[in-house]
Amino acid sequence: MALRACARLAHGIDALAATVYPDAEAPRPTRDPTERAFDARIAFLAELQVLDLDFSDYVFETAAMVDAFYDVIDARVEASGRKWHVIVNFRNCQVWPEAWVAFAHRGKKVNLNYALSSARYAADPKSGQAVEHAAGDDLLPTRDAALQAIKAQR
User: Fold this and answer.
1) In a domain, 68, yes or no
2) pLDDT above 90 (res 150)
3) How many CA atoms does the CB half-sphere of 87 hold within 13 Å?
């Protein structure tokens, strides 16, 4: 929210990004920033009391992109009227430096306000198989492993 309130800072960060990333002028894949596109990445497994968030293959380039996605998450969870165990697929998710503050803030807000527990994983959404990720990362290898971690935290 702090970045949203300061348009000048957000503009400065966007300008910095244009100088940091050599391909900033290159055409980027079209992203559908609509609520429907984000909504498709949010699933409630009511019988397990699990909120399944899919950040796979998503690039958070700016604080505005982070806020748009998390605004949909907040609205959906608040409409449910309950807290959830949260699992998040981070496979190939990228958070650009100019989006990190907003991403960390909004993620922490979800954990504090809506999460009973949480687990992160990196799995191919089609096969469910583990994918390579950075050594030392706390990502679990599969969605099933994340669900088991949630079960162990209950």
Assistant:
1) yes
2) yes
3) 25
Residue 55 lies in a domain: yes
Read off the CATH number of the domain in which 145 is found. 3.30.750
How many domains does the chain contain in total? 1
Q: Which pTM value belongs to this model?
A: 0.72
- Reported in sequence order, the residue ranges of 94-152 that DSSP labels E, i.e. its strands, are 94-95, 115-121
More confident residue, 133 or 143: 143
96-126: pLDDT as tens digits: 999 999 999 999 999 999 999 999 998 655 5
Range of the domain at 109: 35-153
Q: How far apart are CA 120 and CA 10, in angstroms?
A: 28
- In this structure, is residue 24 part of a structural domain? no
Q: How far is CA 89 from CA 19, 25, 39, 43, 93, in A?
A: 30, 29, 15, 12, 8
